[in-house]
Amino acid sequence: MAERIVESIQYGGITFPSIVHSEESVCYAHRNFEVRDSDVFNVTYPKSGTTWMQEILTLIYSNGDPTFSQSTPCWERMPWVEHKTTVQYLENRPSPRLITSHLPATIFPEKFFSSQAKVIYTVRDPRDVCVSLYHYTKMTSFLEYREDFGEFIELFSAGKILFGTWFDHVKSWLAYKNEKKFLLLVYDELLKDLRGSVLHICEFLGKNLDPAVVDSVVENASFGVMKNNKMVNYTLVSEHLLDQKISTFLRKGISGDWKNHFTKEQSAAFYQLYQENMNGLETKFPWDEF
Ligand code: A3P
Q1: Is 76 exposed, middle or buried (0-12, 13-18, 19+ CB in 10 A)?
Q2: Which of 132, 135, 247, 249 best tests ligand 1's pocket when mutated (most atoms within 8 Å of CB)?
C-alpha cells in the first residue's frame, strides 16, 4: 500500500480531494462553466452508481456500439465538471456533451438552472454507499480512512469524508425533482430492472432506440462486462493511487451489502440519523423503512 496522503480543498463548505480538484476548478464549475441546452449531466453522491451511469449514457449515445466505451476511459468520455481538467476535456467538445458531477445543487454550475440542459440524479441506499466508500477509501492513498467500520460510519454520518453529507447532497437535488429537466433514479431499481431503467432514461432524453440497441446497452452496461472493461474498471489508474489488490473499484455491485457490515446497534443509530434528516420528505425510497 502506498503512503496515504490526504490533501483536500474547501469550497462552499464542502471538502474535495485535491488530487483532482482545486478551489479554482470547483469555483469555475459553479460560477463560470458555460452550460449548453443539449448538455446531459450524470450527477451523484460518490459511490451511488456514477460509473454505471457513465457507461449507460455512453452506450445510449453510441447507439449501443461498445467501441467507444471499450476504447476510451470513462473519465474522458464523461468528464467531471468540477475537476481540474474541465477546460481541457469539456470546453471545445461538440454537443451533445455528456458530463459527470458529484456537486450538490447548491454549488452546481449556476448556468444550468436557466438552461434546458438535463440532470440524471442517481441515489443509492446510504448504508450501501457507506460500505462502498469504506472499501474504496481503503484502496485509495488519498482519502480519509478508518479501519474500524464504526468509526468510518461516524465520519460518513458527519460528512467528514468528501462531498459533504449524503443527506444534504440528496436533499439539495430532491428540491428539483418535479422539473422536466430532472430525472431521479434509484441504484437499487437499476439493479432490479436495467432494461426498464434504460428505456426510462431514453424516454427522458428523447431517444427512441431499436430493441436490439437497447439490448446491447443493457449487455454492455452489465456488472460482468464492465468489470472486464479496463476503460471503466479503473485498472488504468496507478496502483499507488488505487490499489486493486486491496479491493476492486467494481467491487460487488449489489444492494444490501450493508447487512454484512453494520451491527444491529450501528444500524439502529443510523436509522435514527436517517429519520432526523429525511423525515417529512415527499419522496419515498425503497430503504425508508430500513
Ligand atoms: P460496490 O462498491 O458496492 O460494489 P461510483 O461509480 O459512484 O463510484 O459507484 C461505485 C459502485 O457502483 C460500486 O459499488 C460498483 O460496484 C457499483 N457499480 C458500478 N457498475 C455497476 C453495475 N454495472 N452494476 C451494479 N453495480 C455497479
Answers
A1: exposed
A2: 132
